[in-house]
Amino acid sequence: MSAWGTADWLTAWNWWTMPVTVIGDVRTEDLERLAAIHAACFPGAPWGSAELAGLLRQDTVIGLVVRRANFFGTRTPVAFVLARLVAGEAEILTIAVDPVHRRRGFARQLMENLLRRLYHDRAETLFLEVDAGNEAALSLYRRLRFRRVGERKGYYAHGTVPGATALVMRTDLR
Ligand SMILES: CC(C)(COP(=O)(O)OP(=O)(O)OC[C@H]1O[C@@H](n2cnc3c(N)ncnc32)[C@H](O)[C@@H]1OP(=O)(O)O)[C@@H](O)C(=O)NCCC(=O)NCCS
User: Fold this and answer.
1) Distance (Å, rounded) from C-alpha 23 to C-alpha 76?
2) What is the pLDDT of residues 71-87, one digit of tens each?
3) What is the dihedral of CA 93, 98, 99, 101, to 10 degrees?
4) Best mutation site among 47, 64, 113, 139 for ligand 1 pocket (most ligand atoms within 8 Å of CB)
């Protein structure tokens, strides 16, 4: 028979009060997992870990990741966004959520964090391109007050349909 000591209670307290998800900058050790998420989201045009690393080495590229804790407290990436900011104008390079972790608000949280970061970094506008048939993404962006400012026909070789149209959307940060 053994009673719990102070250290045991502190460990239990830390475990119960630990946030289940945290958002932070992408780290090198995330890259393999992010490449797997990207491949699950964009099977026709996956970005490998070397490609992601190459982008993140650029000073203009911002990468944010959602890490989710499992039962043992280990945090694993479940969603990420990459954006580029040059001379006050930013663009989303990609956003991807692990299919088993969708509809839990992770994309919205990533985008809200990104918008705050970009505002802090003096960005004036944020652009993105989205497949006109991607209802989930369109709904996400509309809720974040992006508006359509153009389109590119036949833009996506591996879109919702072959040669899918890209809608160009924009939101102003200032
Ligand atoms: C689009 C995507 C990023 C959304 O990620 P998510 O974490 O599931 O989205 P969230 O839970 O944060 O949802 C935020 C809002 O997006 C919209 N949305 C998300 N998934 C949706 C779906 N399947 N159908 C309709 N609207 C959806 C809703 O407006 C939702 O708000 P609500 O939950 O209050 O209704 C995700 O589906 C994904 O990774 N898709 C594959 C990659 C992709 O298409 N990336 C975008 C390329 S431009």
Assistant:
1) 11
2) 777 899 999 999 999 99
3) -120
4) 139
- The domain ranges of the chain are 20-172
3.30.70.120, 1.10.10.10, 3.40.630.30, 3.50.50.60: CATH of 20-172: 3.40.630.30
Average pLDDT (4-10) is: 86
Question: Which of the listed residues 78, 82, 91, 102 should we mutate to test ligand 1's pocket, taking the one with most ligand atoms within 8 A of CB?
Answer: 102
What is the CB < 6 Å shell around ligand 1? 41, 95-97, 102-108, 130, 134-137, 139-140, 143
- The 10 Å Cβ neighbour count of residue 153 is 9
CA of 69 to the centre of ligand 1 (A): 21
Nearest Cα residue to atom 23 of ligand 1: 136
Give me the torsion for CA of 77, 94, 161, 135, rounded to 10°.
Answer: 80
Please give the mean pLDDT across all residues of the chain: 94
pLDDT tens profile 119-169: 999 999 999 999 999 999 999 999 999 999 999 999 999 999 999 999 999
